[in-house]
Design brief:
single chain; 208 residues; alpha+beta; Aminopeptidase; seven-stranded mixed beta sheet; 7 helices; 32% helix
């Protein structure tokens, strides 16, 4: 008798979580306009980037889209449409942000199996748990599908809300660049937090 396969007859959609859909970021007018508007949100300047605040152009947005498409993973975070059918949910979904994984050290170091998370959501949906859900999803993708060993992220020290979220998800502070960013007439640290594959397995109740 042949051994039974553990693979489900209908595998789960790897680009869906409980409330969200994750789709490719397209280099079309719709996605470029969304990204440009998102990059120009005040919170993006002050909480999600160390770049000098100045109005972001369409060219900036186009270049941002290209960078997302070149990374290990770069997807739009979306809310499903109420009237979408199962086969085209992602086509009718409403973008609310983006999440990505990139090799922080370049292509020639891919064998180290490290990646850096980038995530941002539009202001109108913050505080509803979507960030937590998207990070949990990208962690599962990283370790389950992407075969990564370590995932990290960076946050400004004054962004206490994000720091609390990342720590509650199981990220461990690994170090900081002291007084590396100038904002609000003050110097702020850049904090690096990380999670190892073994730590993720333990969090998911799957220690090996």
């Amino acid at each position: 008798m042949a051994a039974q396969s553990s693979t489900p007859s209908t595998p789960p959609d790897p680009f869906r979580s409980k409330r969200l859909i994750y789709r490719a970021i397209e280099d079309n007018e719709e996605d470029t306009t969304f990204i440009q508007n998102h990059l120009n949100e005040p919170a993006m300047y002050l909480l999600s980037t160390e770049v000098l605040p100045r109005p972001r152009t369409q060219r900036n947005a186009t270049e941002f889209v290209a960078r997302q498409q070149s990374q290990l993973l770069g997807v739009m975070v979306c809310l499903p449409s109420e009237d979408a059918g199962s086969e085209d949910d992602w086509r009718k979904a409403t973008p609310i942000g983006r999440v990505s994984l990139k090799n922080p050290m370049g292509a020639l170091t891919a064998h180290h199996r490290n990646a850096l998370i980038g995530i941002s959501l539009i202001a109108s949906v913050r505080g509803q748990g979507y960030g937590r859900e998207a990070i949990n999803w990208v962690l599962d993708w990283a370790f389950e599908i992407g075969a990564l060993h370590r995932v990290s992220l960076e946050v400004l020290s004054h962004n206490e809300r994000a720091l609390g979220l990342y720590r509650s998800l199981g990220f461990v502070e690994e170090g900081r660049l002291r007084e590396a960013v100038w904002q609000f007439r003050k110097w702020h640290d850049v904090i690096t937090l990380g999670m190892l594959e073994g730590e993720w397995l333990k969090l998911r109740g799957r220690e090996e």
